[in-house]
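Input chain follows. Return structure tokens only.
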Amino acid sequence: MRIGTLFQATRAYSLPASVVPVLLGTVLAIRGVGDVPPAQFHWSIFVLVLVGAVLAHVGANVLNDYFDFRRGIDTRPEHGSGVITSGAMTARQALLYALVLLAGAALCGLALLRTHPVLIFTLVAIGLGCLVFYSAFLKSFALGEPMIILSFGLGLTIGAYGVQVSELTSRGCWLAALYSVPICLLVDAILHANNLRDAQDDHRSKVRTMANLVSRKTGERWQLVLLFGPLLFVLVGIVLGWLPIWSLVTLLATPLLMRAARTGSVEGTAQTHLIFGVLYVGSLLLLR
């Protein structure tokens, strides 16, 4: 099978959704958020977390294509990644590919067990549950967006934070969750942009999303909340003192946010997530 087909199947443009939360959790650990001292940075742990998150993400993308094709949701070449609907990859090949990717993610998780085994087991269980149930049937009950926020926004941020601190505390986890709010909103914006684009097809296939449960206008307004909510969070955070003044650097992402709002592009929204996320995470390096 061609390398290009394997790459296309991963929908790599969506990778900011997994990379940015890992970067955020890592920076929060290094800065000592919570009531524990700053963590010592270890390249080996960071790479395992990042690679595991990316493999789980692309594995989920391929598995989602498989289930959507088998259920008759994806029928045209532009649906999903397009590799199955265009005939470049069979459904069986996609399933095997997804399992290989997920097995790689599981190996990374096993390698991290020595840090915080309870946390790793919990996050892996939640992640696998979200992955399988979302792809298999939760999309039919408008639960896709909460699952994405739970797994990609909260789960990866808290997980990356938790495996790199010397002592995991409930306060540290709550603070990591708080700092992940802008990333949660933007990862949901990626999915919502996709759902707005596919609203009519999803409705015909009896897939329920916010995009086809509300009017088109309401869905577009909600997308504005998801895109510009992170900027409001930053401004409020600076005023209240939990974010450094340097977090104003995220305002540089405003033109990208405006473009994503105007075009509705899924890829453009993912790129905006990446740029905002890097600026936001970089500013947190200056937390006192």
